[in-house]
Amino acid sequence: MRVASPARPAPDALREEPGPPPAPPRRRGLLAGVLGLVALACAVAFPFAPVVQPQADYSWGGAGAVPTALPLMPYQPTQLTAVATCGAARALGDGTLIATVPADPDPRAARLDGLRMAVRGGSLLVTTAGVAFDPIPLPAGDCTVEFRSDPTATTLLLNGAPVVNRAGDLRPAVAALLTDARDTSGLGVRLTADTRFQTTISPVKTVILVIGVLAVLGMIVALARAEDRRRVRVLPRGWWRPRLTDLAVTATLAVWWVIGPVTVDDGYIAGIVRDRASSGFIGNVYRWLNAPEAPFSWFYDVYFVWSQVSASTLWMRLPSILLGLLSWWLLSRLVVPRLLPRAGRGIRWLAGATFLIWWLPLTLGLRPEPWVAAGTLLVVVGVERSLALRRLTPLVLALLVAGVTTAVTPGGLMAFAPVIAGAVPLLRTLRTSRLGPVVIVLSLLAAPAAAVFLMLPDQSLASMLEATRVRTLIGGGQPWYAEYNRYALLLTGDDMQGSLGKRAPVLLSIVAAVAVLWAAGRRFPGGPARRITVTFLLGLAAMTFTPTKWTQHFGDLAGVGAAVLLLGIVAVGRRSLAGRTAPWLAGLGVVTVVGSLVWAGQNIWPFVSNWWGLSWSSVPPQVAGFGVATLWLGLGILTVGGTLLVLAWRRAGGGAPALPRLLPTPASVTVVLVVAVVALQVLTFARTSWTHRDSYTLASDAVSTLRGAPCGLQERLSVETDPAAGLLPADGPGGLPVVPVDVGGTAMPGIRAVGTGDTAWFTLDPAQRDGRLPVVVTLSGALRGGDVLAAEFAGPAGTVSRSSLSPSGNTPTDVRLMAPGGADRVRLVVDVDPVDTPAVASLPRVPRLTPMDQLLPRGTEAILDWPVAFVFGCLTPAPLPDGTTALPQWRVAPPQADNSGAVTYAPSFGGPFAAARLLVTEQRMATYLDGDPTRDAAQVYRWVPREPLATAQPQVSERTVSGWSETGRTRVPGLDPVG
């Protein structure tokens, strides 16, 4: 908003009406204090209020019971009782009476320690949570063995008398209810799933919420009316009138919305958001035992409602663009006029450039950064308006927004930075208030405290504390003193964390902050400029306390950073530096160094956004083979050094040491750098979006969505469902023995890389000869240095070329080779030391493909691993209902080289699907991308149960529990102690 400091004449937006200001009505001030007290009391009581928790009870056993899948999440029930009769044990002989995890799971699956009640030699052997009890001889005659376990104790009873009693938590993990017994009439299991996180708001909590929200709103209205001493314009004149800069920024954001890159966490957040429908809360479906994201989750709920319209990439990225437009409006209409009251058209264009260099690389997508950036700008506006008007109400609104922003993400704490930066003048303003200290204090406390209504709307205090404990125990964050890692990553050359686009705004704005503090008060009003610069620096300091240290978090400062960068450029412009030789040259030297560091970065982005050979995505930018970073540094050194020599020469001759007229200012050089970086990012993605429009890009995804096909990458992939179907025909026998080779769960003929020899020649498929499909060989194992394993291609005239094959480990990996022109045959060649090696290779094949949207039609349930979940919007995430996880038929995973999705199936990470993984064998199916068949874009896995399993059906009831109620702790295997 266009406002001025108290020392300056008030602009139109703040012009007072004639006449002396009336005294604030005492009753309204008192009413504001009372409402503030009520709001504060509600905020304190809200976490302790009761919540409604479902109770999911599962029963199994009796005559006709069959093995049943029951993968719990968390892995242990809150209580479990298992019963077996001695008659059932004797009828079984030696074997397993009851088990909750399979005895022979897939070797590639991580183990869980469950319950096993087995009979051996007439004795009962019981093991739970990895702890084995002493054997119990079964007495003659009828008897009953009962196993009971809850978080406090585990007891084994024989005919109702305890024979084993262990204190502590020995609850077993539960993946299924299994038995070797044919007659199950004497067996039974009852358990209650742990649904502590699956709560909903209770009537009592709803009442507290309604009263608290109404009290906050009433307090703000009462404050505003109590301070109503003069009439002011709420918005500046002409705020609605579009300008050319608005059109340019809006057009750029619109283009970026369509073509811009994904972030590394878009898939992660998409999975969390879309699972809310089945879990009933915003939980972490990929790790941490699906612990709720509270107290930082309210914006996920907004995304969930948004996703009910469409889960396509185009639709889900729209909120970040809308927040960008809001931030630009705040910056251009309210912040810049406050910082630079006489700003002209050139300043507005420069503001657009500084805004875009921050917003484009750091705020597109589903991450929380655009929310924090917009919220922080709103707080800046509130603080500046409070100072300009000498009123309390704008400050209370700013604190309310700061609290709401903090509830988005831990990094949102920086939204309080504008209040801290303006603390001294704000205290002066509060001292002049006629509302009284009690009303002021209650209002200032109640406003940010209201954020608790967003932090814990459907969770209890106990569940939030338990979720925090689990996340802390499993880890994934870094301590505050590791903050340097963020800046180390920013300067890492071959990592997307240190991309060119991320370096430019951060490095330039840090330098600009120094320039602003140096120039404030001369070129622009000192108070607002210093405050927003201190806000920026405090924001950087606040990042120290965020648990992770990724460079993407710099996007939290996008709005404030753009303003600081703008002020910094003005501070080192020609007018500011006129007659100041040393600052001029120092500024050029700093811009030289910072610019060279920027150009030393690569134009690199996550996942699908880095596929198509982006300009300078594997090397820093170059011109005519020379690195731009080196050219920039060299040119800057020559300019500064040459100028120093000219000045020295003139001084030695007695002349005036004036700077050369053609010497550029630090501001002009910075503007060139800013515009170049923005143009590079936008033009790069525009080029790849056009040249690869027939394959998959975010732009082609957007176009398909607008045409009514919103399924993203799924529509551009085909799946090799049966590798054996594509085995190439051989032209006669080969010289190497054929052995079975594992190809993602399918056995295929292949060879072992031992000795010297070759296979038969295989005739290429027509699709391979004309370059539409590759030759595929699956490898596993390892070779020693000097060993040779290769594919030879030949045409009618003989050998055409040879391609080396390098196994990379024990996991079967596909190698895709495009046949050279003129080739019509292929064979494998081995020249390896005769000592046996573990390396094997399948015989060459052509992939026989099925479109993925036919294999997995729209709405198919599948586990969507976090790296890829964002671009498969038409598949339904496998649900996690009633304290369990589903046992889906499909899993969609990232490329084979990316193992980051494994956390979802690892018990030590609290992977929600670890129990379900024990029950199946994975059959890998490679995918092939339209227009680029050699690219491993994603993997599809079929989950095949290792034995037929029924589905457990719960009996669900509801109970109201207090906000501090808990049922023991959720146990993380390998991290929480047993017992």
UniProtKB/TrEMBL annotation:
Annotated Arabinosyltransferase C-terminal domain ranges read 819-970
Residue ranges of every copy of the Arabinosyltransferas concanavalin like domain listed in the record: 53-196
Q: Does the keyword Lipid biosynthesis apply?
A: no
Bilayer disposition of the protein: Multi-pass membrane protein
Highest taxon of the lineage: Bacteria
Domain Arabinofuranosyltransferase central: where? Answer: 202-640
Tell me which Gene3D superfamilies the record gives.
3.40.190.160, arabinofuranosyltransferase like domain
Region: Disordered; residue ranges are: 1-27, 952-979
Q: Belongs to which family?
A: Belongs to the emb family.
What's the protein name?
Arabinosyltransferase domain-containing protein
